[in-house]
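Batch 3, record 17
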Amino acid sequence: DQQVKQNSPSLSVQEGRISILNCDYTNSMFDYFLWYKKYPAEGPTFLISISSIKDKNEDGRFTVFLNKSAKHLSLHIVPSQPGDSAVYFCAAREGGSYIPTFGRGTSLIVHP
Amino acid sequence: DTAVSQTPKYLVTQMGNDKSIKCEQNLGHDTMYWYKQDSKKFLKIMFSYNNKELIINETVPNRFSPKSPDKAHLNLHINSLELGDSAVYFCASSQGDYLAEQYFGPGTRLTVT
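Prediction for the assembled complex:
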């Protein structure tokens, strides 16, 4: 029972273009969402988050959009750089919980 | 100045053995976690400790026993290893605030043969 779904296992993008990574969730109790980035042989590192009271959060080249009615969020990277090549995990938390539920991850490859 | 460290990075062992994975964080966080990333790549919570006390214990075989000697350390001991225990195990820590993100260690790849 996957409560957080990342249906695209991989995404390939040209350098300078926009990368859009998608995430869907089923649990309506989730109210805080996070994106983590993971390089090979390293642990995930926090990238950006969004609370359910917002529909957009921006941090430099990274923007997360939340559509609560559709139970969908997306991470936009503009412009994409080769160093962005990594696995991106979407995660979600229920109110009051420290523990996020993770998706399976999407592998992003940015070609020079 | 590694924030969350784990040892060993790789662990290859035979079925039936007992092994431990160590985790240390130097961030001053009060909450630590163990996650398992299985072959399907899902990161699943196993345990969480807050101020050395167990606060979350997901459905994990009792062959797995976490031990927290102090707030900076959370070790994972596994008895009678099975083939299905092969996975990458990640330690993480956070400051005990709902909005705080977790900081992960580099992972320990356990292979049981």
